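S.,

As promised, the guanosine-5',3'-tetraphosphate run. Input:
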Amino acid sequence: MSNFKKELQRRRTFAIIAHPDAGKTTLTEKLLLFGGAIQTAGAVKSNKIKKSTVSDFMEIERQRGISVSTSVMGFEYRNLQINILDTPGHEDFAEDTYRTLTAVDSAIVVVDVAKGVEIQTEKLTKVCRMRETPIIFFVNKLDREGLDGFDLLDEIEQKLDVKVCPLSWPIGMGQRFKGVYNMYERKLVLFNPHGKQEDEEIIVFEDLSHPDLEKHIGESPARTLREEVEMLETVYPAFDKAAYLRGDICPVFFGSAVNNFGVKELLDCFVDIAPTPRARETEERVVQPVEEKFSGFVFKIFANMDPRHRDRIAFLRVCSGRFERNKNYRHIRLDREFKFPSPTMFMASKKTLLEEAYPGDVVGLYDTGNFKIGDTLTEGETLHFKGIPSFSPEQFRYVDNADPLKQKQFAKGLEQLMDEGVAQMFTRQSDGRRIIGTVGQLQFEVIQHRLNAEYNATCSYEPVSLHKACWISSDDPKALEEFLDRRKRDIARDKDGNLVFLAETAWVLQTVQENFPKIQFHFTSEV
Ligand code: G4P
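Predicted complex:
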């Protein structure tokens, strides 16, 4: 096998997603500890912005610092190169998470055993489902009392519309938590609440009916475990790797991240089954990772980490071929050649210069303002990667320049922040007013703060009563023309010039959908 193919097959690129507080940071840290990427607990900072610190701008900047350094956390495990892509915890940054999900090949979803499926779990899993991304669930905090295991599996299946396949099963929980039975490897893993991972007692147990089970966990738990495992085997499908890779079934593991319990089982199974870099669709054709020619797309941009230098880092996912330092690549949107003398790899807060990267890897490219989210680089072929969506925003405000002397700075700042994907901007056709649309309240404050700190510009907001902005299209040019004419006041363009309908209320949206059947209303737009 060529070296290129070997490197490609060693890559496993995934994201850990969760509702805030379910244990994403803790789990990430434990995985990095296994891989030797960090030596001590506490090295991975939580990139949470708590509600209470919404107005604390230093906090926002601090978080941006953490976010950039933890964007990709890589480590080697069992001779595989594992890349964890970090996702912001705060729900107002959900769109950033959605975009990161376009750059991964699989996901681990953390669920808090006491809280079950929460709102962010639902939203993020839905995005994975849309993209048929294989998912593994990790039910966390078994050292606390929580929902019954069967109820939890039901809830996951119903709320998330997935089929599950438990590969480990808890023996009690909270005070009575004794460990898990690893059904994937047929092993009993006993929990020592005061021990370290190395103290985990692992007993190979092919046959649960063996009388030794009582010796290890006691009579009543042994009886319950036998009954429950028998029930699991009748109710849930046997594990089928192909079905997992298609996104049809989702393995479930149980454990306690903070106690480092059940994490190794998860990781060992993950490296066995998780997909190697997957093929990716472009508007032109499907790109296979084994193709020799390099291609990749930008899914995230961090700008102005140091306001004294206008530095931006564009994060590029390599989709095919080998990326090399100092080689010329074609930037498709600008139709220009670029080469990168100092591409970096961010590895658990360490930044290293990189000579080459393979499909599945994420490269940090220093940028002076040439990149937007969704941009493609290739060795020459015209390709546009699909599936980097903008979501129809739900919160809106008019934005205006508040300092007439700083008009230029204001326009530039706003444009760059939009390129970075902080929020979306629509320009209403009838009066030319700019409207900012976001998925969360926090972005308005981030924009105001960053315009000021980085561009020396001031903006003011004004409320605008809108329910939704959605992209419109039609196969019938006449019908579209008529619609644009009839609804003149509600038509805007996004930053790329696409047509957008601004619906004042849910009722208005419903009525126009009924009255104009030839018009399609889209709630996501692929940028
Ligand atoms: P997040 O990134 O998903 O938001 O969650 P994070 O890992 O920060 O965990 C949220 C809280 O849950 C933390 O407590 C963490 O210690 C705790 N936690 C994580 N895994 C487990 C577990 O298996 N069992 C129990 N009982 N708790 C767990 P915190 O009090 O918010 O922060 P900290 O001061 O302990 O770090």
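The CA atoms of residues 419 and 511 lie 33 Å apart. DSSP finds 14 helices and 33 strands in the chain.

- D.
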